[in-house]
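Lab notebook, entry 130. We have the chain sequence and a SMILES string for fe (ii) ion, and the next step in the workflow is to get a structural model of the bound complex before anyone spends time on docking refinements. Request logged below.

Task: model protein plus fe (ii) ion, output structure tokens.
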Amino acid sequence: MFDPGKSLNIGIPEIDEAHEKLDRLAKKVERSIIANVSVAETRKHFLTFISATETHFENEKRVFSQYGLPGMNAHRAEHKSIIQLLTEAESSISETNDAWRKTLMDLMDILTRHIVTFDFEVKTHRGVKH
Ligand SMILES: [Fe+2]
Ligand SMILES: [Fe+2]
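Result returned:
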């Protein structure tokens, strides 16, 4: 998903560490799809990724609210739609139809896009303030 700890750091350790953890979990999902492991095992990794993403979004809400950030509603709306996409993808996982593999591969970099568009607003905002 991304090069851990490098260009995607926003400078808040708790958030950066969570992003790196999500990156590791996303890579596990990608690897299990590429290696064609069992559907059950891939689903297990994907569920772990979804659950860690949900926890991370809750933490972000708490941490980012300290910075009086404008546009937090749009940010939260994007979190919600990401969880919805992940949940829909999870329910499309099937033993008999392989289409979900491509869906999951396409989704695995969704958080990278989210970080550079939304989470980076916090970095910019803090940069202006301090
Ligand atoms: Fe984030
Ligand atoms: Fe976020």
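Notes for the group: The chain has one domain: 13-129. Worth checking against the assay data. Residues 39-64 form the longest helix (26 residues).
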